[in-house]
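During the second half of the funding period, the structural biology subgroup turned its attention to how the target accommodates small molecules. The most pressing case was nickel (II) ion, which had performed well in the primary screen but for which no bound structure existed. We therefore specified the complex as follows and requested a full 3D prediction, including the ligand pose.
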Amino acid sequence: MTPIDATFSLVDHHGAAVTEQDYRGKWVTVFFGFTHCRMVCPRALGRLTTALDELGPPADKVQPLYITVDPERDSPEVMRAYLEGDHPRFTGLTGTPEQIERAKRAFRVFARRKDDPEDPDGYAVPHTAITYVLDPDGAYATHLTDGLDDKTFTERLRETVTQEA
Ligand code: NI
């Protein structure tokens, strides 16, 4: 796999403008999704939280990011409320639709709005379910697919973030 570009210019869930440069010095995980997601995101965010809890002290050097593919609904305030309750390790990132499209292209993430009668607003945004890991210099290190079993996911994350930079 050709390394991804791994760049973005977005707004964090406190309303501050951020780029990938702001997280230099930490391992960064990047997962794209949307807060109305009923299955994929809750499971992915919960699994990463559990994996980091199991890592112990090395987890302090990991910053999980959650980038919305639904910027119309996922304002900084919405993302903050969503993450603070159940996934406090995460920082949520949003932006203008153009900023989100650029971030999706940089990470080669696919997501497109489609009708969903079970959603209160009538739509969902099915999305790629890959956890990207960037090294402390901001470069692509590896990616963890949704299909990995929990034990393998945790071990691969541990091997990645505990290697010598
Ligand atoms: Ni999702």
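Two results from this model are relevant to the next phase. The CA atoms of residues 39 and 126 lie 10 Å apart. The pocket of nickel (II) ion is lined by residues 33-34, 37, 40-41, 127 (CB under 6 Å).
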